[in-house]
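Let's inspect a concrete specimen:
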Amino acid sequence: MGTASIQIIIIVAYIGVLFGISWYVKRRAAASAEEYVLAGRKLTTPLIMVSIVGLAVGGASTIGVAEQAYKVGLSAGWYTAAWGIGAIVMGLTVAKKYRRLNITTVPELLERYYDRRSMVAGIACQVLVQLVIMSMQYVAGGAILASLLPQIFTPFTGMLTSAVVFIGITLIGGMWSASQSNILNVTLQYIGITVAAFLILAMVGGIDVVAIKAPSLTSLDFISGVGPMTIITWIAVLVTVNLSLQAIIQITLGAKDVKTARKGFIIGGFVMLPVGFISALLGVIAAELYPSIAPTQALPQLIMSLNPWIAGITLASLWAADVSTACNLLLSAATLYSHDIHKRFIEPEISDKKYMKVTRTAVLLLGLLTLGFALTISGIISTLMAGLSLMTAFAVIVLMTMYAPKYCARQAAFYTIMASIIVLVAWMFVPAVRILPHVIYAEWIVCSLTFCGISLVSNKAIAKETAVGVNQ
């Protein structure tokens, strides 16, 4: 059997299994809107763990890290490690508090404890950031399929195929599809990339040979390739994101209880720590073996040098990691629309059945919109870092609301979100304001000062009963 035939069998079988899982859980997901959006708040610790790992370790954490490592070396793996650190911080701090609040979305928290305009601004920012992150999964998915089956897929048609699977699985089973398929995705992804790393190291003669042939002196250095400031910045950004991004919060809210939410995030964070460095090592080896290919193709191209069955399964599992990330992001963006816009402003008395239909329609339309975004994006990680910094306002608001509610003013949330947007726009279009190493630092300074300043001068505090509720 030819290599192409093997790859086709593997990818078709994988798609078939993913859709099979989705159809298997469809009846459970269709029982109610809460089952579809939050898995009925019944996710166990293993399902929370694979959900957060599946969300974080997608295209940017594998293909994107290898792309970066192709250029700067092993230190690119800190990007995925930063995701793990963020998940651990989330588990140790606010995961249990989010679950105790029994909300559905972050903007719902803003309206409950602040005001409606905070909620509206929050919806806009959360949806935009999640669509940007999701568009990364299309880019990475297209690169994987184009490498896996170059005679069938181009990066563009790979993106189209990825879109069909991302949207289809989410439409069918919602949160149940995403969590259950992640058991398969995460398991095969970790086995696949670990086996591939061992085989490729053996193929090139071991780590000593890699070190000798390394493109630069920093290729195998854990720090100096990207530099300590970049590593600190990644950690700052991704801790911020884990505390505030709707897709992550939605996983927490789906946990069966407070303890489950906390344990799932902590375990998932530790599971994430090594995989980025494995991807980065493969990116370094790719730079030695293929010095003239596009960096985005580094990891797929290297894996394709293995036995066709091993290569096919490994790349299919990396592609499936994109599926798991995209499904969570797409579902959470759709939930923001159906719960916080449609149900709140358009049809307040909507039935549960129609609410689910509206959510599914939003999944379809937002999925198509992100495909358009993906066609205009180049560098995976650099694009992500700018968009994710917008989450700083939400992190400041959430931390203050949960740990110091008596010092929070009702007007503070809205102005903090506005300040966050202004900082990002100014950073992008006014070079003179870039006096700090990264926009995330400017965001934390400005958002913290804005929130605290407004709270100091305002006499409209959040309600006393709210303060008691969040601070338990």
Remarks:
- Residues 155-204 form the longest helix (50 residues).
